[in-house]
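Protein modeling request. Please complete all fields; requests missing the sequence field cannot be processed.
Requester role: graduate student
Desired output: 3D structure, token encoding
Chains: 1
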Amino acid sequence: MSERAIVTNALYQILSEHLSEEEILLLLENPKSAQHGDVAFPVFSLAKILRKAPQQIATELVTQLPTEDFDRIEAVGPYINFFLNKRKESQKALALILEQNAHYGDATIGEKQMIPIDMSSPNIAKPISMGHLRSTVIGNSLANILRKIGYTPIKINYLGDWGTQFGKLIVAYKKWGSEEAVKNAPIQELLKLYVDFHARAETEPELEDEGRLWFKKLEDGDEEALRLWQWFREESLKEFQHIYDMLDISFDSYNGEAFFNDKMDEVIHLLEEKNLLQTNEGAEIVDLSDYDLNPALIRKSDGATLYMTRDLAAAIYRKNTYHFVQSLYVVGNEQRIHFKQLKAVLSKLGFDWSDDIRHVPFGLITKDGKKLSTRKGKIVLLEEVLNEAVDSAKAQIIAKNPDLENKDEIAHQVGVGAVIFHDLKNDRLNNFDFTLDEVVRFEGETGPYVQYTYARSASILRKADWTQRNIPLESLSLNDEDSWEVIKLLQAFPTTVQKAANKYEPSIIAKHAIQLAQSFNKYYAHVKILTEDKERDARLALVYAVKTVLKEDLRLLGLKAPEEM
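Delivered output (565 residues):
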């Protein structure tokens, strides 16, 4: 039980006729100084109810509160300050983690209900850039967090694998391409062909007509067009998979835009059936003025469907397939209006589950102070950034520990982990700058710092030749201030996971990992852990608990926890 839950329970025993447990919990505060306790309760809200001065209320309540869970309870002005029983709480926390290990913090809230997560979603025949990082790692972390509390996440890579660009690509390949060149370097060659097409089309505008013609052939099921499109898709996926393997991220579905080609007629039929389609300048729209939104464009004047049509088809398909309790779209903040329109159209169609659709937006990354975008044909490739991060990690590892075995494997875990952690430690909606030297540092609020702390805890346990075992409860008792700060963070882990899930915010986990690592390193600096005395087992159990929870923090974020660094 967390410290706030313990205090709430104590207060509720004497205030149940005035305040609910939830109301008490919301009033609790964290004191600015440890001298004022672990949790503070301001009594101002009771002044009108009890018709007494706040200071008098606080003094009177202290005499009525149960004391078995506390070292002491003090009235200070209009506040009640609670000092939890350190020995009792350390025993409970350490015993629970020793018993549950990696399952500490697990919950059954989700009841195995499904939550599809639309994430990553690169375009076929184009490289995965740094711009794809956020959707990919946020979506993956949310899947881990939701699974931790009992949901069944479905990770969907909604590929950009349809559109007029494929007609252009087919034309470019047929005119200037080489099968061997595409096989040798699929993404690079296909992107080069695509860029060449646009460069030539500036002086040869007839190429645009040829591109449209070949896309029409593709839509009509032309054998050659379909063969080339399928080949481009397969070769691109091979390249994508290499990067996903580097990130250690997998997907449950690669159903992209093309998958919904034969499912859009149903959407049009449903809209017509509900008399929702209107014609505007030859195009078909759904009026959303009653939602204070611009019209949703469903079909262009030439009969072509659009993103909205496909997203409607995808939403209906996912509901019918997964019977989801929520459906998440991890897509940049710039698409927020699109998702408001999507939900509004589904609502107009009578689908009450439209309320279960959640757009999980995120801010932009800049790199070295510059916006990430295609500039003069140059893209910031994610693979290059990951490789640079791994090289930087390896250089630092060699400098710190030249005799370390498995340097390459650990450098990969640290370098790639550093990039992921830097993204996820930032509040999801915030924009942030990416500078490699800052990201792959072993000090400060970084992934390598947390991983290094984990490796330190593993090293202490190896040195002590200590293994997890049944230890009598009375032997897990600690009472010092440094261990207490660590214990409180260990106790907070289960509620931290649930808060991260409720807010769709992996940064809550990352910040917990940083705080736990910092508190443990302070403990390590001040306490002689391996001293042979009656508290040695308790101290080593604390180290084991920190190691267990840090590993779980890192796992939920999508990082590995190296045993040595």
